Amino acid sequence: MPRKMHLAFNLSTTHMNGRWNLPGAWGDRTFPDVTLYEDVARIAERGCLDMLFSGDGTGVPDTWKGSRDDAVKWGVYFPRVDMNPVMVAMSRVTQHIGLGLTYSTTFMHPYYMARLMSSLDHLTNGRIAMNLVTSTRRSDAANFGFDQLMEHNRRYERMEEFVAVCHELWDATESDAMIWDQETGQVADPAKVHDVRFEGRFFKVEGPLNTPPAPQGRPVIVQAGGSPRGVQASARIADYVFGADMPRALQVKQRAALDAALIECGRDPDDVGVLWQTPIAVRETAREAQAYREMLRTSLTPEGVAVFLSYSDGYDFSTLPARFKLGELRAEIAATNATPNGLVHKLATKLGADTEVTREEFFEQGLLIATQYDLTVAGTPAQVADHLEEAFEATGSRGGFMFGQAIAVMADISAVVELLVPELQRRGRFRTEYRGRTLRENLSEK
């Protein structure tokens, strides 16, 4: 019997980066109308999807030309809200689907996050996931009082200690500590609530939490590090890994690196799945799917593309010379502690580090990456399912896919549920009903 995939839907930029006004996106509603998110949740649960997910960032892009004006004007990673209350709203109209939130371990405090996630796990009846990021953007860092980005490896060291604190806090109160005795009035057993007293390199925490033990014990932890140090962190702390939308050969390489790191940590690679971000355009006919995908070419203005690229890589691309080598630019970006795996890295991998390009060629390629045009899989349900099966098997048949970013949110979630899911179910590759009580239980199905 073939292994089943796990499927999630990425809501991170459904209202940004040129997507909000495409046909089939928001219609007569505008962000942050919670009724759209509630509708998405109902549809996704009807399709038995594992999780609705949202990335996040707190800064307004200001890398391009040292100004945020074009980001605000064209809606590039702007505006945003904290998705915590939105996820709660979606949980109130569903019963099974998981909900994934993103927070930065570089800026947040573990006591606050442990308490928040325990509370959300109660509110969702065991359906919450915590996606942890280290943050690579200066505008985010400045909002939390940082004059410059924390060094790359140090960010991951902080993340690992952050999770260690959370684990101690979640484990401090035993699962059967709560009594709620109506006759005596006793609330809990003091012998089952333990001290924490954590003191490490980055955090000093007394504890314990003052929340009841959560339904999942602890939330599902998702992490998306793609650098060698990020993969090492994933092996140490993650229940599930969020994999980037990149060529399959690189995904196979990352899965192999993750497996090796998991074994080194004494963990079974079979227990840690990867959800590969996979933009799709699925329609009843291949011609309709290709036409739908073509909308991406004009979804962002040239200024919007420039803002997107500069923000994503943490580098002001308005300063580029007329001609330059990709490898040299990649090294310059990495030296600033910005992301080593952004656009320039992707182009250097695709075209070669010694390749010299012009500014015009760079932005032409950048448009395809910023809109995800190159990586969007367009086709009929059977064609897209073929692609997913091939990728699933090539990367070890553990985990599945995160569909995103959506071209047009309502049209895309409907197409996934009404066209793609039935095809995957017919092939025995996806569930026909939820069997687990919690998100952790549903994600553990194979």
Describe this entry's structure for a reader.
Strand 5 and strand 6 form a beta hairpin. It is globular and about 75 Å long. The protein has 2 domains: 6-297 and 374-443, TIM Barrel (Alpha-Beta Barrel), CATH 3.20.20; 301-370, no CATH class. With 446 residues, it is of the alpha/beta class. The protein has helices at residues 34-46, 69-74, 84-91, 110-123, 138-143, 152-171, 228-237, 248-264, 286-294, 302-313, 326-334, 343-351, 359-370, 381-394, 409-426, 439-443, and strands spanning 6-10, 51-53, 98-104, 128-133, 198-199, 204-205, 220-223, 240-243, 273-277, 280-282, 323-325, 356-358, 377-379, 399-403. The strands form 4 sheets. The protein has an 8-stranded parallel barrel with strand order 1-2-3-4-7-8-9-14. Helix 1 (34-46) crosses helix 3 (84-91).
The count of helical stretches stands at 16
Biggest beta-sheet profile: 8 strands, parallel, barrel
Order of helices and strands: EHEHHEHEHHEEEHEHEEHHEHHEHEHEHH
Question: In percent terms, what proportion of residues is strand?
Answer: 5-15%
